[in-house]
Design a protein that fits this description.
mainly alpha; 3 strands
């Protein structure tokens, strides 16, 4: 049985690790590298799953004083009667272009998920072998979360559920609340590490 003291310790450790990860993420080299990483991994995942939108993530933005460092070009295949792929996308006008900080789009919830893994009292091998699964699940979830937000932009906040896909986007969009994304990250952590964590404490209690 986990004691109250252990729970408080883990929450304190989570706060400290999260703070350290955020500080590291503010280093320019790390920030730029992560933006480039997201522009490839997240874009490919999004374009593979979303049947009606294509995105082109660019890890840079026009000069600004707001920390915006990411460009998102959205192509609505329902309105564009052309084949959109890596070869043709440069010659097709986007349906919408938005500028954002990649921190808001991707980074902070991922850091929370990583922090949860770091403070979990399991051996390093177990956590490292299961972390890719958690990141894949999180990336898939983010496709639905971002799709919901993009649909709102494309419809001028008049989002309507008129297909099964948009219903899934509505569910995954979580009302557009970033706070709920942290809850999803915690659920994914529980799914991926819950069983080995349960087995560990079951063995301890049976001794």
């Amino acid at each position: 049985m986990i004691s109250l003291k252990q729970i408080i310790f883990r929450f304190g450790a989570l706060a400290i690790v999260m703070s350290i990860l955020i500080l590291i993420s503010n280093v320019q080299f790390v920030k730029k590298s992560h933006a480039i990483y997201c522009s490839h991994i997240s874009q490919n995942t999004f374009n593979l799953i979303n049947p009606v939108l294509k995105v082109d993530y660019i890890p840079k933005a026009p000069d600004n004083a707001y920390g915006i460092d990411f460009t998102v070009k959205i192509y609505d295949k329902r309105k564009i009667n052309q084949v959109i792929n890596k070869r043709t996308i440069k010659n097709i006008k986007p349906t919408k272009i938005i500028y954002q900080t990649h921190r808001v789009l991707f980074l902070v919830p991922v850091l929370f998920l990583l922090a949860l893994f770091i403070v979990t009292p399991l051996n390093v091998k177990t956590k490292l072998t299961r972390l890719p699964v958690a990141l894949i699940l999180f990336n898939v979830f983010m496709v639905f979360y971002q799709s919901y937000g993009f649909e709102f932009l494309l419809t001028d906040n008049n989002f309507e559920i008129n297909s099964f896909w948009l219903f899934l986007c509505w569910l995954g969009g979580l009302g557009g609340s970033l706070e709920n994304v942290f809850l999803v990250a915690a659920i994914i952590w529980g799914i991926v590490l819950g069983w080995p964590l349960y087995m560990k404490y079951s063995k301890l209690n049976n001794k």
